Each structure stands twice: as C-alpha cells, then as structure tokens.
Automatic annotation (TrEMBL):
Organism: Rhodoferax antarcticus ANT.BR
Keywords (A to Z) from UniProt: Membrane, Transmembrane, Transmembrane helix
Coiled coil region boundaries: none
Transmembrane segments: 29-46, 58-76, 96-116, 137-155, 175-195, 202-219, 253-273, 293-313
Record protein name field: Putative membrane protein
Length: 347
C-alpha cells in the first residue's frame, strides 16, 4: 500500500502541475486524469484511516475541485453551478482540477510527516489525572461559552428559516471572528468535562446547550456546515478522552450519507420554507441539468467560489496570497470593536 500511495501522489501531483501549465491537456485526456485523481484519493483515505478528521477534510477538499473537473470532462460546455457561469470555462475547470491534485499531494504529505513526528503522550492518562473539581470549572466556563456563541450565532444569521428567507442579509453578520469555531471548541470541552464529572445533571445540561447552539443558533437559521463540524468533533474527541481511536466503518459511511442527504435537503428547504415555493428538490436538479448545469448543492456553491477566484487571478483582479490568509484567520478572531482594523473576511 505504501508504494502505491507514494506513486499515486507523485504521478497525480505531476499531472496536476502539467495541466495547470497547459489546461488543453485536460480537454484531450480528461478522463485519464480523473481516474488517476480518484485512485489517489481512495488510496489516501485508506492510508489515513487512523484520522477521521483528516479523512473528512481531505475528501471535502478533493470533491470540490474534482467535481468541477469531472463536469468539464463530460462536456466542456457544461457548468457546475448556476451562479457566475461565465467564470466556469473549460480552462478554469481544468485549473481547478489541477490545483486540487497538487493540494491533495501537499495536504497528504504534510499530514503524513507531521504524524510521524507526533507526540505519543497518552492524553487519556493525562486527563484522568486531573481532579474532578477542575472538570466542574471547565464545564461551567465552557458551557457559558457555548451559550454566548449560540446567542451571537443567532444574531449573526438572523431570523429562523420559518420567519424569513435565508441569505437575505437580515442578520448582523459575524459579530465575532471565527464565532462558530469557538462555540464548537467550547461544546467539546463541555462534553468532555461532563463525562469526567459523571453526573446526570451535567449530561442533561450539555445536551441542552448542544441543541441551543447547533440547533437553535445555527441549524434553524439555515446554517449547516458548522453543525456538521461540531458533530464530527464530538464524534472524534469524546471517544479519544477514553483512549479510543475512531475509525470509519460501513455503518459510519451510511450515517454520513444520511447526514449529507439531510443537509442538502435542508439547504434547499431553508430558502423555500418562508416563501412557500413548490418546486421539489429533484425537479430543481433536473431543471438545472436540462439547462446545462450539473448542480450538486453545497459542492457546486463552493466550487463556483473557487472558479471565481481563479478567474480573478487570471484577469489580474487579485494575486496570490502565498499563505497570508492563514495568519489573517488568526487576526480575525478578536471582535471588531477590540480590533477594528482586523483583516477582512474574503469569503
């Protein structure tokens, strides 16, 4: 497996580099490139079976760029999103596929070598050595953090999908940089501390704040990805506190499939519940396909953003940031009233 892993990544990244330099290659040999890319992804997912979080992020990363490439391999004139179709040219689609192949190599290499250097300290033993009184403090502080971020999330998103149309700008925007990420961290700490305290009222409390934050503060207002990331974090971290390493099994893939279907359905309903639109999800997908748009819900939405960015780079509207946005992410964490000149959120 190791030999195939190395060979697949080197070949796929090399092909990606060639495609980026000459996108016409993808038009002539697109399906061969797609086959190599998918093989590399499958080998990587098997190789990194010991890290569910990395598997999930890697799969999402690759799906976005490869979806655009596959659509263009089917027909260069097809679009992969109904938004900003003019930027979804065959060249842009090929470059999306190429950069995704290179990113797959970089992400896999970085994680592979970092894992080999990881600290083997037994976190379970370290957690068990902490006194229960400490975990009680952690529980109350983190629970307060969840309640605050849940409330701020509700204000940021605006009314629920039953009270207004999602995405119309009725909310106040992100009042705190990386708001939902902070809430997820606090929620995980609440769950872990409740497990350590081992009292039923703590478990009841943490279930309430989880629904408050993920359900009332995000999901009912149209948010989805933050809910998934929170559930995934709990799925991995909570067993880890008991010394267990979560690995994906067949039943997990079935659950993930159901969650994905639910989130896509919710993504459609969140824009129609208030208006009472009658077109079904399937009818909408068929209508778009007949018009030359292969729509895949959230994947298409993110892919169109990727395409727009490459289009702006090609037309010299923006340039490469060379990793600067990673530092900007940290600088956006403080509230705007504390740091009014924080970097803007480019998304």
């Amino acid at each position: 497996m190791d030999g195939l892993f190395y060979l697949a990544h080197l070949l796929n990244a090399g092909l990606g580099f060639l495609i980026y330099l000459d996108p016409i290659l993808f038009k002539n040999y697109g399906w061969w490139f797609v086959a190599v890319g998918i093989l590399t992804l499958v080998v990587s997912l098997v190789k990194f079976s010991y890290s569910v979080l990395f598997q999930a992020r890697l799969f999402l990363l690759v799906t976005i760029g490869y979806f655009a490439g596959i659509v263009k391999a089917i027909n260069p004139d097809l679009a992969f999103s109904p938004v900003a179709i003019d930027s979804q040219t065959a060249v842009i689609g090929a470059k999306m596929f190429a950069l995704t192949s290179i990113a797959l190599f970089g992400a896999s290499a970085g994680f592979f070598f970092a894992w080999k250097k990881k600290n083997n300290t037994n976190l379970m033993i370290a957690a068990q050595s902490i006194k229960p009184a400490y975990w009680k403090t952690v529980y109350w502080v983190s629970s307060l953090g969840v309640l605050i971020t849940g409330y701020l999330s509700a204000i940021s998103y605006g009314p629920t999908v039953f009270e207004g149309v999602y995405g119309t700008g009725e909310g106040q925007g992100q009042l705190l940089g990386n708001l939902q990420s902070i809430g997820v961290v606090c929620l995980v700490l609440s769950f872990v501390s409740a497990i350590r305290v081992k009292k039923i009222n703590y478990f009841i409390g943490v279930l309430f704040i989880a629904f408050y934050f993920l359900g009332w503060g995000i999901l009912l207002r149209g948010g989805r990805l933050e809910v998934l990331s929170g559930l995934l974090a709990l799925f991995v971290v909570v067993p880890a506190t008991q010394g267990k390493v979560v690995k994906l099994s067949a039943k997990h893939f079935f659950i993930i499939l159901l969650l994905a279907i639910f989130m896509e359905v919710w993504g459609s309903l969140r824009s129609t519940l208030f208006t009472g639109a009658t077109e079904t999800i399937i009818e909408g997908y068929v209508r778009l396909a007949e018009s030359g748009v292969y729509f895949a819900g959230t994947i298409s939405a993110i892919a169109s953003t990727f395409a727009n960015l490459l289009h702006m780079v090609d037309t010299h509207v923006v340039g490469f940031s060379f990793g600067e946005t990673y530092f900007d992410y940290l600088l956006r964490s403080p509230p705007e009233f504390i740091y009014p000149n924080r970097p803007p959120d480019l998304s």
